[in-house]
Amino acid sequence: MDRSSVASDAPHVVYEGRYQRMVVRGHWEYSERTHPGGLAAIIVAVTPDDRVLFVEQFRIPLQARTIEMPAGLVGDVNAGESIEESAIRELEEETGWTAERAQVLMVGPTSSGASSEKIAFVRASGLRKIGPGGGDASEDISVHEVPRAQAAAWLARKLEEGYELDAKLWAGLWMIDHNLDGSAREP
Question: Which domain holds residue 141?
Answer without folding.
Answer: 37-177
